[in-house]
Amino acid sequence: MGRLLRFSEMTFPLDPLATFGREGPLFLEIGFGDGRFLVTLHRRYPEANLLGVEAAAASVARALRRVVREGVGPVRLFKGRAGFALRNLVPPRSLQVVYVNFPDPWPKSRHAGRRLLQVPFFWLLSTRLADGGRLLLTTDHPDYFDFAVAEGQRSGLFAVTTPSPPPEVLTTKYAEKWRARGRRFFHAVFTKVAEAMKAFPPLPKEETMPHAILSGELPLLGPFTKEVHAFPGGHAVFLERTVREPEGYYYLVRVEEEALELVQEVVLEVRKSTHGLYAGLKRFGDPLVTPGVRRAVAALVEGLLAAGLRLEKRSY
Ligand SMILES: C[S@@+](CC[C@H](N)C(=O)[O-])C[C@H]1O[C@@H](n2cnc3c(N)ncnc32)[C@H](O)[C@@H]1O
Fold this sequence. Notes:
- There is one protein chain.
- This protein is of the alpha/beta class and 316 residues long.
- It folds into 2 domains: 7-192, Vaccinia Virus protein VP39 (Rossmann fold, 3-Layer(aba) Sandwich), CATH 3.40.50.150; 211-315, no CATH class.
- Helices cover 26% and strands 31% of the residues.
- The protein has 8 helices and 14 strands.
- The protein has helices at residues 16-20, 36-44, 57-69, 82-88, 119-128, 142-155, 173-180, 291-306, and strands at 26-30, 49-54, 75-79, 95-101, 129-139, 158-161, 186-192, 211-215, 227-231, 234-243, 249-257, 262-273, 276-281, 310-315.
- It has a 7-stranded mixed beta sheet, with helices on both faces. Strands 9-10-11-12-13-8-14 form a 7-stranded antiparallel beta sheet, covered by helices on one side.
- A hairpin with a 2-residue loop joins strand 12 (262-273) and strand 13.
- Helix 5 (119-128) packs across helix 6.
- The longest helix is centred in the C-terminal third of the chain and has 16 residues, at 291-306.
- The protein is elongated.
- The mean pLDDT is 96.
- The structure holds S-adenosylmethionine.
- Residues 30-33, 53-56, 59, 81-82, 101-104, 116, 172-175 line the site of S-adenosylmethionine (SAM).
């Protein structure tokens, strides 16, 4: 398996042996930025299997180049949000240590809901940490620090201590940036002492691309306008439509599922197939079949039915 994790190659949750090709304690870094801390961790704990999760695509690309250049083998990077990765990728009770270095502080009170370290996060985390597993937080932001410590304590599942930070967490890009500006650092260790009652099962993983088979002549569709289809837990935005040669259409669709902490850009297609007209998800760009992706396919099919095509069969 390559260092960049792909939905099409993984199981939910990951099988650590298949993923890393070896046994080893599992460490997770959330928001790895340019990836330099993953290199530091590997040098310090060569026996550890390192999973990194980062939401920003440009940072993932930079970190991937770095870990390849530095020859870090037992590392796997996932582009996405921490909540999604913890729930779906990380097996129950498998993590020894989780690092959160300089998380986005969201200082405005109206944005506090976007902060990572909140009670529901600690509930989920408790189910993925091994007994006695720990989360290490380092930040330059006193309000965020107080907030995270209070949330960890409020979860009732973690013992929180505030020792001095280990030196390696003060070598990240943001640590260097804030040190240069004379900021203070705050550090907390959240040690699991109990586990949430809820199990937080991962999503079922489906291999079949959701689609419908339609009959009738594919009409020449009128001008395209951007469309938003809302559904419980998220929405799908039809951003663009292009003609597919020799016949059919491609649609670029962004599916945002707040409830899953997942945003995907997927391609839907309408094309002739042996059984009729195929309208559905294209296996391109490593899509994950989710309820939201199925809703996007349903919206596409409804539009085609309204344009006069007939439904023969559907699987979504
Ligand atoms: C301030 S930067 C710190 C980067 C790095 N840890 C460092 O110390 O240099 C915060 C990082 O967390 C990422 N991030 C924010 N929310 C996230 C989430 N929910 N899941 C994964 N990464 C996230 C951001 O994209 C960004 O790269």
